[in-house]
Structures are given as C-alpha cells and as structure tokens.
Amino acid sequence: MTTETQRSAARSSDTVAVLGGGRIGEALLGGLVAAGRDAGSLLVVERDADRAAEVSGRLGVTATDVADAAGRADVLVVAVKPQDVQGVLESVPAGRERVVVSLAAGIPTIALERWLPTGTPVVRVMPNTPMLVGRAMCVLSAGAHADDAAMDTAEGLLRSVGRTVRVPESQQDAATALSGSGPAYLFLVAEAMIEAGVALGLPRPTATELVTATVDGAGGLLTGPGNHPSLLREAVTSPGGTTAQALRVLEAHGLRAAFADAVEACRDRSQALGATYGG
Ligand SMILES: NC(=O)C1=CN([C@@H]2O[C@H](COP(=O)(O)OP(=O)(O)OC[C@H]3O[C@@H](n4cnc5c(N)ncnc54)[C@H](O)[C@@H]3O)[C@@H](O)[C@H]2O)C=CC1
Ligand SMILES: O=C(O)[C@@H]1CCC=N1
C-alpha cells in the first residue's frame, strides 16, 4: 500500500460527527455516504428531534448528542448557525484527540479555539451550497493548533463533496464574498435572465429551461482545462453580431462596477461579523 493510500484509508476509517443537521450538515453527510463512506462511522447531532430522525432515516447515519459524539468522533464538523456555535462548542468535553472543522460563516479560529478544550486543532472552512450536488467549493484555513495532518483530514473529508482550496485565514472574508455567497449572485442573474425572456414573450417553463441549461453548460465550459472567461466570452461574441449589443448594454449599466461593489460589501459584512467574535 502506498503512503497516500494508507493516509486515505486512515481518513475513511475516522468517525465523523456533524453538529447541526440542517442544509449544509445534511449535504456533507449525504456527500460522504454517496462517496462510499460507511454510514456507521457517521454521527449527526441535531437539536430538532424531527429533523434528526429525518436525516438519520434518509442517510442511515446515527443521531446522537454532543457528549456522545464528542467522545466517539475523530472529526467534529460544526454546521450550526454562527450564533449557535459557542453554545455547542462549549459543551464539547476535553479528553479526546479530535479535529474540529467549522463551516460557520465569519467565526475566526481564535474564537473557536477559545470555546474548545485547549490545544484543539481547528480548521475553518467556507463551503457553498453546491455541496448539495457534490460540487462545493470549500475554502480552508488552519487554526493555531492545526498541523498538516489536521488539514489533510479536513481536506480529505470535504473532497467527497467538491473541490478544496487552502488560504491564509486573512483571505477568508474575501473568499466568502466570492465562493461562499457567490451562488446567490449567479441565481439572481439566472432569475433576471428568465424574467427578461418572459418579457420577450417566451413561456416561463421554456425561459427557465433555456437559462438553466445555459448556466449549466457555461459552467461546464468554464471549469474545462485551460479555459478563461474572457476567451470564452470572445468566442460567443461575433463581430457586428448579437452578443456584442447585449454586452454593450450590460457594460453601460455598470455590471462590472456593481459586482465589484457587491463583493466588497459582502467582504465587509463578513469582516464585521468576525470582529464581533474577536477576529
Ligand atoms: N447556507 C449557506 O449557503 C452557507 C452556510 N454556511 C454555514 O453553515 C452553517 C449551517 O448553515 P445551514 O445549514 O444553512 O443552516 P440550517 O439552519 O439549515 O442548519 C443548522 C441546523 O443546526 C441545528 N442546531 C442549532 N443549534 C443546535 C445545537 N445546539 N445542537 C444541535 N443542532 C443545532 C438547527 O436545528 C438546524 O437544523 C452556518 O454556520 C452557516 O454560516 C456556510 C457557507 C454557506
Ligand atoms: O449569507 C451568509 O451569511 C452565508 C455565508 C455564506 C453564504 N451564506
């Protein structure tokens, strides 16, 4: 067995507990099950009993409480809303070596470490909702006690549900503004295009199908090897043709400036949220 295979084998035998069985928590657990991980090694801690039963019934994972999860898990994933994180982490008992992977927006590792037993390796992650279809972009940053092995563990998990990138924690707010919140910008663009098609007289189902297929196809081109958005846009834009007219109008309406301002506002909000936790 190669070293890499040994490392992967060790990771897939880890017991993983997800604290919070909401949208992101279930998406991660579902992705892990779909990637072939034994559901018996997956735990969910969800305070809403009906929701806990729903997630465990759907995925075959075990619903339990924080104390039990913390006692059994090699990896604890935090997937509750930011305002619920402190309460959950302060109930994690000391005494077991485990990596904590936080998916909570805006909460800096320095705060997570303060709420956890001293010395706990913490990895802060900004995921996004395409995790629901196994196509997440997860941006990872190491806390003060997270070594390469802890980062490998977190990355190994998250690769089951999409792509991963490591950045210094100082770049997390900017990353949130691009990939964390980014799906919402694209959904807004899709919505606007559908409404524009309806205004031109297309039946709504037709407009919706045309736009969703176009967004999906364009995404496939964009993630292809060696492709760049400028080149792809040029390839659609015939001299004197139709696309050039549409692009001229979008530029005249300040599309690029709108995106620059929006991304900056999002980054600022993420920074402000972090500052409330001492980041
Ligand atoms: N939705 C998104 O696009 C993104 C969300 N995130 C982060 O992911 C985290 C989860 O977000 P969602 O899944 O959208 O929220 P959600 O509200 O769908 O899920 C949170 C779940 O945690 C449960 N919960 C709350 N307190 C609990 C406790 N003390 N013990 C056990 N369970 C508890 C709730 O009952 C709920 O089911 C948040 O911190 C958010 O910042 C990060 C990036 C993107
Ligand atoms: O809007 C939010 O606060 C969260 C974080 C990134 C995406 N959704």
Automatic annotation (TrEMBL):
The lineage of its organism: Bacteria, Bacillati, Actinomycetota, Actinomycetes, Pseudonocardiales. It catalyses: L-proline + NADP(+) = (S)-1-pyrroline-5-carboxylate + NADPH + 2 H(+); L-proline + NAD(+) = (S)-1-pyrroline-5-carboxylate + NADH + 2 H(+). It is found in: Cytoplasm. SUPFAM superfamilies: 6-phosphogluconate dehydrogenase C-terminal domain-like, NAD(P)-binding Rossmann-fold domains. This is Pyrroline-5-carboxylate reductase. Belongs to the pyrroline-5-carboxylate reductase family. It comes from the Bacteria. Keywords: Amino-acid biosynthesis, Cytoplasm, NADP, Oxidoreductase, Proline biosynthesis.
